[in-house]
Each structure stands twice: as structure tokens, then as C-alpha cells.
């Protein structure tokens, strides 16, 4: 399963955080609004409770009455949701809006003048926000202890909270979209140094530059510095390995020359078979040394060279065509003059030299060399009209390039393949009926 990119993971995490934060903030705002609405309702009920208590009087018969009721018309509308009630001994006064309902006030003890707040059921199954006060009337009213209460249905408060929630949701949605987009923009600009770091790593790998450099933000600079240090250490180790390989090859030269001299002395004594065996062994050892030297030279190499293919092909053909084998062949070249590859000139010469020399050894009458540039690469095709090679050997060459020297077409093919792989190319070999066709694909030089 493919893992999400860092940018996408951060964006998703940011979007989730925005949604969660807005949900929490909205819940808190709704709760604050509900608390504010209830406080306002309690304040209004407190004022109306004061009006109810202040409006108490005695009629001519001495009965307690509410001479000046609150002015709110809802008190006169049955079941309007706003009610008042006064209890004084056996006397119970109620607003018209209560109709035949009695507020079920709890039987608690109230200090004189203190307000208690209750949530009582109403006859419709809802809840009433109720303010209750116990008051001792003045001497003119008989010093009677009364319990006055004013109640408001909470349905209005719930409706106000619901309306506030509905009004809040669109703004939250717009805010969420704005914050998520802002997060994406922040990520785009914040992660640009990492994208630049990746491009420079690719440039270092392809040979466009040698180091990542130090012009990065301080958060990314330690990584770039460590990568450059790693590259320095690797180049140092590779250089040391190349020197050791060169020293080893140099150490082999004297023993190999001694073996060739011994073979020459054996031949002079008439021991041709023994001389031939020694020469074959020495030649195999020399070629293996050459191969390892090529590997050590190619290790870690990245080049920005632009080597013209036509010039290298012309130089190699001019040399090979003068050999006894090459002089008898018809050489045909089709290489555009402007075609260049991003390969070191010496490496290109060694790779093409191996292919062209191999073709000249196995061709009967003709060797054809052509080059073209399909899809951003350069394909160099070397074809002879010889007998070709067995099909199973071709598959072996494709899969196990290290055994190319066992195919009968020389160690040079293996070296050529290694040069191609070192620069990001490839070597393809196939029978062409007649002959063998070797196609070397290499990266095209920037134009």
C-alpha cells in the first residue's frame, strides 16, 4: 500500500484539526449564548417579579389583590408562556395566562427577599424557568408573608439557541474552508525547501552539480550539510578504492609480463602447447584486470559532459577499419552531427570501441552503425552480418551481464554494459538475421 505524501498527511491533519477546533469553538459559543440568553431572561423575570410584588394591595373587603399587574400583554394571554403567581396563606393569585394551571413551587424555606431559581414542568410537558421570592408585606398590607413567582417557558430560550446555531453553521463552514485553504498555502510554501532539496539530490545523482549547497532554511540546512558530508566521505572512499585497484593492477603487470616472457621461451624450445596455454591464462588475467579497472573508474561517476557521438564513432571506425579484419569490411555509418550524449568522452569511446571491435570480429562483409534519439535518450546501434549467437546466450547476456565474457563475444560487452549502467543507460543485444545487433542507450546531453 502506497503511503501518503508528507504534504498530504500534514494537510489532512491540519484539516481535521481545523474541523475539530471549530466544532469545539462552536459548542462553546452555543453554550455561552445559551447562558447569556438565560441570564437576560432571569434579569427580565426579576424586574417583572419586582413589579408583581410592588403591585400588591388590599381591596375594600381587605382581600389581597394585585392592583397593578405587569404591563406585558402575555400575562393576559392564556398559556402564552409567561406567568405570575402569588401565594399568601390560603390565598392564591395567578395571571390569566396560567388559566387553570398552578405552578408547582417546591416547599423550600426562603429568607425574606431572597430569590430562588427553579426549572419547573408546565402543563404542556415543557420546562418553565421560574424565579420565586418570599416577601413580608408592610404593615399597611397586614404584614402577610407571601410567595411570589414569575415563570417563563424555556421553549423560547431553546428556539433562540437553535436559531443561533443555524446562523452560526454557514459562517463556520466558510471559516473552515478559509483555514484549510490557508493551511494548504502554508504547506506549499513551507515545504518548498524540501522539494528544492529533492531536486538538488537528483541533480547531484545525475551529475548536474556536485553538492547540495548551503542556501537552505536553518531547519533544512543540517540535513543538506550531512548529505554533503556523506557525499564527501563516499568520494574519499571511492578514490581510495580506485587507487587500491590501480595499485593492484600495476602489481599484476610485472608477473603477467614474466608469464608472457616464459611463454615465448617455451615456444622457442618447441613447446607450443604449453606456451599457448600460458598466453591464454595471462591474457584472461589481463582482461579481468582491465575490467576491474573500468569498474573502479566508473564507480560513483556522474558527468555533465556533452560528447558528440559522430566524432567518437568516426575516430573508432578509422582505427578499426585499418586492422586486417576491418579492412575487408564495408563500413556504413548514419550518425547525426548534432547528436551528443551526457557521457565522458573516454567512457563513450571505450563502450563503442568494444561494440565496434566485437562487430568487426564477427561480421562477414558489413558493419552498420547508426544513431538516433528517441524519447530523450540516444540509441547507438552497431550491427554486423555475422552468424550471431545462440538465443539462450542472448537471454543470459540480458540477465547476467557479469558472464558476458562466456558468450563467445568477448569481455568488452560486459564492460560496455557497465559503462551504460553507470550513466543510467542500458545495453541491449539481439540477433538481427543475419548477424548481431547491439543497441547502446545513453542519456542525451542537454541542448
TrEMBL record:
The chain crosses the membrane at residues 169-191. Its main location: membrane. Residues 247-446 form the Histidine kinase domain. Keywords: Kinase, Membrane, Phosphoprotein, Transferase, Transmembrane, Transmembrane helix. GO terms for cellular component: plasma membrane. One of its GO terms (molecular function) is phosphorelay sensor kinase activity. Its EC number is 2.7.13.3. It is found in: Membrane. Pfam families: HATPase_c. CDD domains: HisKA. It catalyses: ATP + protein L-histidine = ADP + protein N-phospho-L-histidine. This is histidine kinase. It comes from Thioclava atlantica.
